[in-house]
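Thread amino acids onto this structure.
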């Protein structure tokens, strides 16, 4: 994977480190987002209250099929070419010729979901480059409790069979229940992809199909790291070790991780020309192996460290020292050999730990609880989890190399409260682990999109701001301060993580892509060994609305009254059309370099709607004076925060201008306003005014509804419809 480097603000080498443009969110999208947030707050998506993937209810669908005497056909992931892939496995590609989708009952006379328990020998790789997934599934079988949560072992081809199965997967912070039909891709009567050594056993093939479904296609599963599968089957967090730089206690870390049920895998790096090349010692390069055991055996009065590995192919085994039936086993007591099952021809083999470190390149460990894998004791970590997004123009600031925009990235504060019980080298500090994961990138491969280079930086919160409930740091802070910790690399991985130790205190975590203006959703997880507090900064909404009821006609300057009289005519009120003529004739020419297409009639109707207090849909003298005061204030904000003096504002200047005008909005609202009012990332003056008018209209409406000042407003259905229709008029 490519790594990128960026500089800290001192100019020294700092953190080490490539979207589908979403459609603008419509009302239905906003409502769906609000409903999702409320459901997650209520606990939907945890391991006991799973989300129904794409709203497919397994029990309801199966009951419907049984009542009709039908077998389920999945309309979302159909038995069709598009489910196979888009390029190498795309429609009419050579690799898909002759493929037929068949149910297990068409492949054998007595299909079984599981035969004599699910074991790691049930996973044999097929014609798909997903050995990383096979290694994860094989390791999953070592913990039957975890496996049962994923595959629902009570399923069968006998009782209540209707051609439908379901699996439980962890997807980006929540557990989802995934429904599939049992039509599987075959060629010449055999399964094309993963299969069991028993031709009438199908749980592994069906699990692979469920995983292909949530990722968009089978081809989307080609290439990856086993830790990705580990996390999606357990909800755990992964760590990795470069074996060329292995810590001295890594063998003990492996033993402890296996004893806790953690999932482990390893691989040998190779060039593109060495993809799955077999060495003379029968090891496969760029291939993912499961690590399934670690023991010490007695040989001539001394201990030899051994590790057990499994090739997902189910064959092609290491032929060096400690391989099956090698001479080294002659020196081991028979009772020890019997325990280690050292000679089965099943793709699983032992090798000396010293050989393992030399021949393999990378070790991945998925901590299930997650526990501190380099500790001599088992300790349960606390988890804080946040969903966020990088959006062009509002929160996609890129790494610290991009000094003008880095500060607009989402920011999260962590307060480390308690020191570790067992300090390292007598250094008092707090242990924690940060994991940043970008979402759904496999699904975007068919559009030519790949993983972005992602990473995070951690900053010490200044003394003067400690204890503040919500402190969002801005550009000047990042220009003056360097990070105190960070991810090792900005890398094109689904997830980057780092295990860190820092003194107690307040810290700021800033996740970002390496380059700015890259759009993606992400999940940030923070695991702490001891008590801590974590919160998203800039997630609160606050506002200051000017009091306007104090203005009377006596306070208005005579020259302004004369101007109003010349505009209003005999009825002494200004309509939206008259206001438009005034703004475009008297205000727009005074804007100088500020770019504007002039005020539209709809914008002027919105302004009148905001300030009209008597329902006449016109502005009187006092109302017009209030508008004039607002326009002057808004013009000052616009000019002040048009930092590059372009006559327009870019999206992050908008945020500063809104804060100056008294509106503190969270990331999601800033993203919404940019999407609604900015054009190609910039906003001109009239759109800026329209944005402020809409915002103030909404906030004044809320303030009236929040009679007790609690920050909550309770509406019935009639009031919701009225409010939404009213706000639509001012859009």
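Threaded sequence (731 positions):
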């Amino acid at each position: 994977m490519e790594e990128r480097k960026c500089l800290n603000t001192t100019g020294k080498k700092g953190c080490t480190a490539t979207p589908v443009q979403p459609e603008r969110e419509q009302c239905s999208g906003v409502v769906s987002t609000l409903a999702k947030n409320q459901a997650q707050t209520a606990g939907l998506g945890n391991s006991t209250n799973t989300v129904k993937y794409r709203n497919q209810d397994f029990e309801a669908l199966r009951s419907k099929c049984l009542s009709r005497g039908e077998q389920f056909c999945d309309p979302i992931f159909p038995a069709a070419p598009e489910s196979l892939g888009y390029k190498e496995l795309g429609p009419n590609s050579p690799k898909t010729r002759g493929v037929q989708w068949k149910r297990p009952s068409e492949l054998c006379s007595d299909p079984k979901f599981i035969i004599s328990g699910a074991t790691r020998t049930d996973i044999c790789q097929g014609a798909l480059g997903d050995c990383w997934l096979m290694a994860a599934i094989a390791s999953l079988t070592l913990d039957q409790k975890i496996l049962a949560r994923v595959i629902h072992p009570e399923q069968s081809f006998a009782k209540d069979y209707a051609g439908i199965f379901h699996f439980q997967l962890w997807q980006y912070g929540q557990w989802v229940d995934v429904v599939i039909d049992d039509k599987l891709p075959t060629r010449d009567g055999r399964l094309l992809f993963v299969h069991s050594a028993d031709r009438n056993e199908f749980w592994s093939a069906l699990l692979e199909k469920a995983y292909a479904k949530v990722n968009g296609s089978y081809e989307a599963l080609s290439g990856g790291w086993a830790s990705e599968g580990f996390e999606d089957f357990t909800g755990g967090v992964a760590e990795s070790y470069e074996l060329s730089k292995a810590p001295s206690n890594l063998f003990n870390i492996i033993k402890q991780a296996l004893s806790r049920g953690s999932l482990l895998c390893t691989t040998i790096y190779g060039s593109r020309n060495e993809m799955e090349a077999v060495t003379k010692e029968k090891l496969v390069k760029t291939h993912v192996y499961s690590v399934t055991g670690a023991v010490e055996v007695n040989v001539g009065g001394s201990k030899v460290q051994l590790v057990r590995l499994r090739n997902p192919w189910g064959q092609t085994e290491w032929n060096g020292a400690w391989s099956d039936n090698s001479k080294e086993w002659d020196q081991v007591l028979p009772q020890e050999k019997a325990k280690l099952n050292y000679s089965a021809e099943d793709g699983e083999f032992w090798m000396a730990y010293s050989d393992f470190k030399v021949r393999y390149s990378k070790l991945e460990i998925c901590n299930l609880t997650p526990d501190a894998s380099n500790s001599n004791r088992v300790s349960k970590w606390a988890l804080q989890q946040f969903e966020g997004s990088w959006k062009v123009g509002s929160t996609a600031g890129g790494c610290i190399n991009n000094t003008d925009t880095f500060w607009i990235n989402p920011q999260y504060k962590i307060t480390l409260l308690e020191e570790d019980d067992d300090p390292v080298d007598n250094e008092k500090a707090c242990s924690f682990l940060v994991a940043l994961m970008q979402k759904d990138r496999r699904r975007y491969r068919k559009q030519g999109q790949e993983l972005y280079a992602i990473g995070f930086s951690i900053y010490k919160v200044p003394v003067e701001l400690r204890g503040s409930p919500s402190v969002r740091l801005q550009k000047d802070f990042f220009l003056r301060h360097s990070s105190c910790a960070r991810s090792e690399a900005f890398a094109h991985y689904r997830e980057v993580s780092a295990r860190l130790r820092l003194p107690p205190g307040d810290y700021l975590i800033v996740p970002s892509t390496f380059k700015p203006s890259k759009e993606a959703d992400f999940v940030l997880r923070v695991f702490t060994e001891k008590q801590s507090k974590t919160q998203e900064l800039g997630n609160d909404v606050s506002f200051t609305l000017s009091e306007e009821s104090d203005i009377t006609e006596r306070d208005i300057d005579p020259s302004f009254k004369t101007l109003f009289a010349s505009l209003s005519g005999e009825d002494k009120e200004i309509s939206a059309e008259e206001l438009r003529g005034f703004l475009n004739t008297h205000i727009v020419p005074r804007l100088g370099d500020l770019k504007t297409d002039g005020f539209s009639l709809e914008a002027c109707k919105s302004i009148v709607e905001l300030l009209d207090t008597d329902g006449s849909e016109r502005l009187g003298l006092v109302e017009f004076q209030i508008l004039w005061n607002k326009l002057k204030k808004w013009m000052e904000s616009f000019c002040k925060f048009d930092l590059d003096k372009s006559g327009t504002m870019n999206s992050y200047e908008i945020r500063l201008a809104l804060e100056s005008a008294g509106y503190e909005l969270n990331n999601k609202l800033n993203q919404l306003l940019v999407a609604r009012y900015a054009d190609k990332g910039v906003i001109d003056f009239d759109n800026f005014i329209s944005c402020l008018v809409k915002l103030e209209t909404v906030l004044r409406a809320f303030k009236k509804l929040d009679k007790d000042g609690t920050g909550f407003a309770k509406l019935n259905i009639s009031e919701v419809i009225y409010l939404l229709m009213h706000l639509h008029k001012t859009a």
